[in-house]
Amino acid sequence: MSTKKQLEPAKWRPNLDAAHNRAQTPTVSSILAPIQRTQRAIVPLINHRPPFFIIPRQLSTMASQINNRRLRIGMVQYDPKITQVEANMKRVRAFLKDVEPGSLDLLCLSEMALTGYVFPTPNDVLPYLEDPKTGVTSQFCAEIAKEFGCFVIGGYPEKLREDEEHPGNAVGANSAVIYNPNGERVGDYRKTNMYEADLPWVKPVF
Question: I need a surface site. Which of 39, 155, 158, 183 has the fewest CB within 10 A?
Answer without folding.
Answer: 39
